[in-house]
Write a structure and sequence with these properties.
Length: 208
């Protein structure tokens, strides 16, 4: 498959703060959060893959290929990113992978383009998103050329994304947090209620 960019949507976590289950399947504004994330990251020349563990059939309605973590025991998002990198290397001709969480209902549509611009301006191989004084390492642009470095780091026990990317250099692209932080993610029932209220405010849902 020829693709200018591969995208991995990360849904491999255990959602312990939500009481278990799949956070990306929760509904905001009348749509599963995952559907909203897919819509924000789909585009010409892009190939999307979903990272999820256990039975992939629960995501069948989305029509995406599903890959499990590259290593077992839920080591965190680095394993899902590596799984996405491996899938992209095997099934596309792209040089880069965009990683996004499957539980962010308000992702910006210009995410990949702005990350690429930040990476080029800084002369670094990696770029991640930032907003409100925080960086979001899991939302980033990854060169496939460094996937074996990531594999070795995971095997050595590395679990922190920002510590790994800092070894090679990582730029940050900043977004405003008004009218909503585009990287707000749903971790708790309270977050879900807040996301629904934001969606209504933005005209993306129903108040009734």
């Amino acid at each position: 498959m020829s693709a200018e960019l591969a995208v991995v949507l990360l849904a491999g976590g255990r959602a312990t703060r939500m009481g278990g289950g799949d956070k990306p399947l929760l509904t905001v504004g009348g749509q599963p959060i995952l559907a909203r994330a897919i819509a924000a990251t789909t585009g010409p020349g892009r190939a999307l893959v979903l990272n999820a563990n256990a039975d992939p059939g629960r995501f069948a309605a989305f029509g995406l290929p599903v890959v499990a973590d590259a290593t077992g025991d839920y080591p965190g998002p680095l394993a899902g990113i590596l799984a996405g990198l491996d899938w992209a290397a095997a099934h596309t001709r792209t040089r880069d992978l965009l990683s996004v969480p499957g539980d962010c209902p308000f992702l910006p549509p210009d995410l990949a383009e702005r990350l690429e611009a930040a990476r080029r301006a800084a002369g670094t191989p990696f770029a991640c998103a930032g907003s409100g004084g925080w960086t979001h390492p899991v939302i980033g642009l990854w060169p496939l050329a460094l996937r074996e470095d990531l594999r070795a780091a995971l095997a050595a026990g590395e679990r922190k994304i920002d510590r790994f990317t800092a070894r090679h250099g990582c730029a940050t692209a900043e977004w405003p947090v008004e009218p909503v932080d585009p990287f707000f993610n749903v971790n708790t029932p309270e977050d879900l209620a807040r996301a629904e209220a934001v969606a209504v405010h933005l005209g993306q849902g129903s108040s009734g």
